[in-house]
Amino acid sequence: MLQGSMPALITPFKNGAVDLEGLKALVAWHLAEGSHGLVPVGTTGESPTLSHEEHEAVVSAVVEAAAGRIPIVAGAGSNNTAESLRFMHHAKDVGASAALVVTPYYNPTQEGLIAHFKTLHDSCDLPIVIYNIPGRSVVDMSPETMGELAKLPRIIGVNDATGDLARVCEQRITCGPDFLQISGEDATAHGFNAQGGIGCISVTANLRPRCARSYKRPVWQEIMPLP
Predict the structure, then answer these.
(1) Strand duo 17-18 + 13-14: pairing
(2) CA-based angle 181:186:192, to the nearest 5?
(3) Which of 21, 74, 142, 166 has the most C-beta neighbours closer than 10 Å?
(4) Which residues of 95-124 are buried (b: 16+ CB within 10 A; e: fewer)?
């Protein structure tokens, strides 16, 4: 369902307010440029600073503008489990394909991460992509913890922004070959995908989406899949 170049969409503003018409025009441009999916309200989309109402309006506008032509992975993360669940239910209700859920920031333990994601999984049937970005959240989900979560049927993959290329192989061992590994860092995306990743949730693709389309799964992986 998810692969290739998926821009982490910016959220345009005009006169201090979210520019929904500008956002819809941006979605139309990405469709014309051949982006493989879109990710509204991730880190690049101002997720820490939007109000709840703005967050939900952005997701709704992107889903509406895409009109089912490409997958929409809606940002739905929070260190507050109830808040994250609210965003997941909204994303499901408006027709998003999956939810991008960041590791809850500040101070959760690995056991706390499991409890957080399992609660979200059990409370909403929208597929979940874990967003592991320790450089921003100061919380790093270990491959072992991710392996436990990968056993849940609707936790389908990871947006890995660790910058650690060794994680691809480690997470393949703990999570299995069907777990989607998506790079969350443009600088290492080609190396990430060469080892078994299937694409990139890309910041650079906001400017050059046609160039970023090379993040799609390499042809040799289709011919000779990794074990």
Answers:
(1) antiparallel
(2) 40
(3) 74
(4) ebbbbbbbbbbeebeeebbbebbeebbeeb
Q: How far apart are CA 126 and CA 202, in angstroms?
A: 22
Spans of all domains in the chain: 4-216
- Residue-wise pLDDT tens digits, 163-219: 999 999 999 999 999 999 999 999 999 999 999 999 999 999 999 888 766 665 543
Tell me, yes or no, if the pTM score tops 0.90. yes
Degrees, nearest 5: CA angle 183-184-188: 60
| Domain 4-216 classification at class level | alpha beta
Q: List CB contacts of 143: < 8 A, sequence separation 6 or more.
A: 167, 170, 171, 173, 174, 175
- 28: its two tokens: 């139309």
**Interatomic CA distance for residues 160 and 181, integer angstroms:** 7
Q: What angle do CA 52, 186, 70 make, to 5 degrees?
A: 60
